[in-house]
Amino acid sequence: MKKTILVCGAGGFIGAYLVESLKSQGHYVVGADLKYPLYTDSSADEFYVKDLRLKENVDYIFYCHKFDEVYQLAADMGGAGYIFTGEHDADIMHNSVSINLNVLDAMKNMDCKKVFYSSSACMYPEHNQLDPDNPILSEDSAYPANPDSEYGWEKLFSERLYMTYARNYNIDVRIARFHNVFGPNGSWNNGKEKAPAALCRKVALADDNGTVEIWGPGNQTRSFLYIDECIDGIHRIMNSDYDKPVNLGSERMISINELVLLIANLTNKKVTIKNIDGPLGVMGRRSDNRLIEQVTGWKPHEDLETGLLKTYHWINGEIINGKTDQ
């Protein structure tokens, strides 16, 4: 059945891919964001360049359309260099909460009944992620709450915000906790890039036998989810009957130093790692996929290498063409 769908954050990395996927399914897709996608044209049927922090802008979009579904991905976010410095905490919390309140109020007022919300693994307790070899990130480990950043606290609060609107206003909610999604057409050198893009850039810029600087000791671990699998997972969660938060990520864990060496090996380069002081985040993080497999019958594959190669070649092409990510 053809649906009319709103994607908030349609100018962002994941949002742009999601719009394209929903269009390929035959839906009428409306995008909304502060900006158009930076690296691609949007596939949306209509695109509103509006500040979703302002209630009147969100109300206007909902007034112009009757939406069957909403995908709320708009947020103030970035990688460790943005989230963990402490310099952006107030903006991160204010901007993202404002957007979520505006979207939920518009849904309530316009009787729109189904929404997907993109949360983050950053909402998990810091004390469960101190061991790089054994992080604990099952969905039921979220409490007692103790995220390691204000970004994580905002995501945790917003999860609860969506679930309260579900209970009180009969809105059908789906929530995914994203774990380090990466791929082409994402931030790679503007201070908001995440580890895979940043490291692909550093390896691409390094001479053969050159040096790559890594924040922290390098034994901190993560799991990384390629964008195609993220989009697949969003659809599967949205089509499921499960209305509580669920992890969406890879279970394949790799240290940051190992990730650098893997990228170099895939691209036939030799590099030396220099570990330096810098923002770290938690020491260990990977998705626990038992619940998503239980509720959807699916979990992501573990082909990190293919995703890294695609991402590296795209970033290297941007560098060769003299482009910047601003």
In short:
Helix content is 38%, strand content 18%. With 326 residues, it is α/β, with parallel strands linked by helices. The chain starts with a strand and ends in a 6-residue tail after the last helix.
Q: Major sheet, described briefly? A: 7 strands, parallel
Using the CA coordinates, give the radius of gyration: 19 Å
Relative helix content = 25-40%
User: What's the CATH architecture name of the largest domain?
Assistant: 3-Layer(aba) Sandwich
Give a count of the beta strands, DSSP E runs of length 2 or more.
13
Record keyword descriptors for this entry:
globular; two-stranded parallel sheet; 326 residues; 13 strands; UDP-galactose 4-epimerase, domain 1; 7-stranded parallel beta sheet; Rossmann fold; 10 helices; alpha/beta; 38% helix; single chain
Structure overview:
The chain has 326 residues and is α/β, with parallel strands linked by helices. The chain has two domains: 201 residues, 3-Layer(aba) Sandwich (Rossmann fold); 95 residues, Alpha-Beta Complex (UDP-galactose 4-epimerase, domain 1). It is built from ten helices and 13 strands. The strands form four sheets. Strands 3-2-1-4-5-6-11 form a seven-stranded parallel beta sheet, with helices on both faces. A two-stranded parallel sheet has the order 7-10. A two-stranded parallel ribbon has the order 8-13. Strand 1, helix 1 and strand 2 form a beta-alpha-beta unit.
